[in-house]
Structure formats: structure tokens, C-alpha cells
What we know:
Elements: E1 3-6, H1 12-25, H2 34-40, E2 48-56, E3 59-68, E4 80-88, H3 97-111, E5 116-119, H4 135-140, E6 144-156, E7 172-175, H5 181-191, H6 195-205, E8 213-218, E9 221-230, E10 249-257, H7 266-280, E11 285-291, H8 294-298, E12 303-314
Helix pairs in contact: 1-2, 5-6
Amino acid sequence: MPTLTPFDLNSSEQHSLLAALWNSGLPADLALSPEFVHSVTRPTTGGVSAGRIAEVNGQPVAAILASAHPGAPSSMPCDVGWIDAIAVDPAHQRQGTGRELLAWAEEWLAAQGVASIFTGCATRHVSPGVPESAIPFFAACGYEQCDWTNWDVARNLADYTPPPTLREVPAAAYPAQPGQEALLLDFLRREFPGRWTFETEEALVNGGRISDFMLLWTANGVEGACKLTFEDSAWPIARYYPYSLPRPWGQLGFIGVAESVRGQGMGLFLLDAGLRRLQNTGVNGCVIDWTDLLDFYGKAGFTPYHRWAVLWKRVG
Length: 316
């Protein structure tokens, strides 16, 4: 049986170890970098994380990271936990090592007050699910597949043109400017008070640029927002696995408009503004991550890029 030792969340050497183990079993377009691992192991307000390394004859052969959010704000669940990443060297797979790591993570998460565990999808996530190749492992460990699939969609923006269904609307969209942080957060707290608000608060506290957000303005003020990622953004572009796309890389993240203006073409207008902003700054390969709105993004020429399965298990 392997020996389990604590994963040091602050160790660059162990960040590199997890990346190497992950990369040994997955295709190159899903590669982890040590810098990416470092970014997801940093403290999160109200969150806790822990991990274990499995060693055989003194050699590390597998690792796991798990997280929970017992200090979550009232608009977010505090009884949900996540398996952020699990990686087993291919030579040591199907020998019970992964099961032992997963059992440790489930026990640790239960001790944090977690009632349900999900694969991926963490507050500071490695991925919005797991590759389909991992489904049999989690199913054998008692996890059920959710009835939805998380997709990343992508396209090359080099030849991007506005969608033919784009309508003229009484609105304008601009990059947010220093001093407009409160406007952005007030909009999100009013219209999307859960995860999007929390992650934006975290991003701005941790050095994120306010100009990486787009604001949609109407006569009533800010009625929409979306988040962009560039190669020099504070949050790493690597978290969107853009490797098989042409550089420079970019990402368009959450996008939403106020309930009062939905159904008027405002969402597509804001999407187009965000994509043209990326295009005008030289971005080619663009990812829109963690979505099931394939038809909406298809209007702008985006096609499926990565497919992520989400599985869950009740504990306690």
C-alpha cells in the first residue's frame, strides 16, 4: 500500500510534482503548469484546501487536491466540496492508489462540514469537471454523473466579424476604468450575487485589473458585465487550456446582463464588444469556458473545444 504524506500547498517543488503527474496521464492540450498549480493553491477567502501525495518505496506516484468553502458568503453554498485534481502515474494506475487518495479526500472534506462532493468546479478550479476518460474511475468509487456537461468553446478571432444576428441596442460597452470597481460589484451583487460576485471580489483583491472587465451601459447605468483574460492578466490564461489554439491567447469568461433588459439582444451585443476588444488587442486563440450555451456562442462562430464531465457524491 502507498504511504500518504501531506501536500505542501506552498511548495513550488510539489506544484511541479502535481503538474508532472497530471501531464503523464493526459493529452498535451490539457497540460498543467507549475505556475497554474500555484495559482489554484493560494488561499481563498473563507476557503480551505488540502492534499496528499502517495509514495511507493519512497517515490511519489500520485497526488490529490481537495477544497471546501466553509466560510462562504450567504449567497454561496458552504456544504459543498470539490476534488480539485487527482493524478496517478500511469505505471501505478489500477492498483488502488487513486482510490486510497480519494478516500482520504472524502474523509477530509466530510470533516469540513461538506455534504456533497463534486469533481472539478472548485472556487479556484483546476478544471470545470473531469475529462471523460476519468468517468469510469469516479463511477467505480460511487460517484454519479450529473445530468449536464460543461463545455469550453473556442475559435480563432483573426477573422472574427460581428454575428449577422447582432441587433442595434440602446446601449454601449466599454472596458471598466479605475474607480469603477464599485459599479461593477454593485451590478454583480444585484443581478448575480453568487459565484460571479465572489470570484470578481477575489480577483480585484488579488491584483486583477479593473480594465479586464467590460461594462454594458444603458440610460439606467451599468446593466451588464463580462470578464476577459489576456496572457498578462492576474488570473492565468493557462487555466483555460488554450494550448492547441494560435497565440496570442485570450478568454472571455462570465457574461451577464440585468434581468430587466434580457431578451433585447443586449447579451449578444456585450459578447460582440468583448470579442472585438480581444481581437483589437491581438488575441487569436480565444476560449469561452465552462458553459452549456453552445447555441448562443455558436452565433459568434465558437465551436466545442473541451468537454468536461461533472460527477458528484453525497458524504456524511
